[in-house]
Backbone:
């Protein structure tokens, strides 16, 4: 009896149990919730009541095997992804209070699109109303002339303002219902300008001396081959003084001893620090700018569009020559189009606007051969046919 109570009751009550246990007496144990009562049978006088935790009589469930857990986790993620895609295509209606709040903020009943709809006809005259016609497309030089007129000292008085370019992208992938993610890329500025960023120090690795000369003429502080690699490995050259390390493709295999020294600055082809055109790489990383192509987060009042992406980049100042700004703008388009997915239909850069981030809120839409504005290109073809 005493041994049974030791198993059932708290260990701290063992002295009490020993004192009431009697081999000549018989006790009956009553299980309650959460109380166990001990009452003598046939003998009166002692009744013990001891509190204890609830007894669990169910068997302990064993953990599933690892393969089973992985399989169930995979099924769960697939179902979750299907549910999110189903809700994206058929979103539930917004609550009444949310609709009233959107109306108060001027959004209206229907949510807005991230892309501006281009369904209106193109104007044929010099004066038109954008309420009935599509917006005007300008060349980069015409857009810069418009900005210079607005920011003349006699008007908004910012004749040397920084010119920005805002690009819109079609992020659809090669397969149906597949989209590319946001990405960042270093864009070269062949005509640098003052933008509050210091020039970067560059070190170049290559085998031929001709490549060394091209790299130094492009702006690299130091260039070398296997001897330079050995000096860095022995600690004779300080790598802390350099911001970027670039390499030619012919010397990539010999750079392995520097992997633990350069670490995240180690030249890699996916990061764009390894290539064959060293002169372009040096100019890109000396005076270039990092441009991030973003996808907007889900925002109340806007339709969710996973194929929409955008970026903003500086391309020059109003005081620069229009030709120099146009070269920087073309370099921006060419560099970003290198990251376009390999699909048969549809373009990548769908729209480009030029503006100055100042008092004027207007932005001037720009057309270019590298911009995939199919509707405007068909309009120009129809004009050429009629003429």
Residues:
């Amino acid at each position: 009896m005493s041994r049974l109570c030791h198993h059932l009751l708290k260990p701290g009550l063992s002295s009490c149990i020993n004192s009431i246990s009697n081999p000549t007496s018989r006790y009956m144990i009553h299980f309650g919730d959460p109380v166990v009562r001990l009452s003598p049978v046939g003998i009166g006088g002692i009744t013990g009541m001891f509190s204890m935790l609830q007894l669990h009589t169910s068997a302990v469930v064993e953990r599933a095997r690892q393969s089973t857990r992985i399989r169930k986790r995979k099924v769960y993620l697939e179902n979750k992804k299907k549910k999110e895609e189903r809700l994206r295509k058929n979103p539930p209606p917004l609550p009444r209070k949310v609709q009233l709040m959107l109306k108060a903020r001027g959004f209206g009943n229907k949510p807005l699109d991230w892309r501006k709809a281009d369904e209106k006809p193109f104007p044929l005259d010099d004066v038109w109303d954008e309420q009935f016609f599509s917006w005007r497309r300008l060349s980069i030089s015409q857009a810069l002339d418009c900005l210079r007129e607005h920011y003349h000292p006699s008007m908004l008085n910012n004749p040397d303002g920084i010119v920005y370019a805002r690009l819109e992208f079609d992020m659809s992938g090669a397969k149906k219902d597949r989209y590319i993610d946001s990405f960042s890329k270093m864009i070269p500025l062949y005509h640098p300008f003052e933008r509050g960023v210091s020039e970067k120090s560059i070190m170049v690795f290559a085998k031929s001396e001709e490549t060394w000369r091209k790299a130094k003429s492009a702006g690299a502080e130091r260039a070398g081959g296997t001897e330079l690699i050995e000096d860095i490995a022995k600690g004779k050259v300080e790598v802390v003084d350099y911001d970027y390390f670039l390499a030619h493709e012919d010397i990539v295999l010999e750079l392995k001893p520097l992997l633990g020294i350069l670490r995240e600055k180690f030249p890699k082809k996916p990061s764009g620090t390894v290539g064959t055109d060293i002169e372009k790489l040096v100019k890109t990383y000396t005076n270039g700018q990092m441009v991030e192509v973003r996808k907007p987060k889900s925002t109340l009042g806007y339709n969710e569009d996973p194929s929409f992406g955008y970026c903003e980049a500086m391309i020059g100042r109003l005081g620069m020559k229009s030709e120099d700004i146009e070269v920087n703008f073309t370099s921006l388009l060419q560099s970003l189009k290198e990251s376009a997915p390999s699909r048969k239909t549809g373009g990548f850069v769908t729209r480009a606007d030029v503006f100055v981030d100042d008092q004027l809120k207007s932005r001037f839409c720009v057309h270019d051969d590298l911009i995939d504005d199919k509707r405007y290109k068909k309009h120009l073809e129809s004009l050429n046919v009629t003429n």
In short: The longest helix spans residues 66-89.
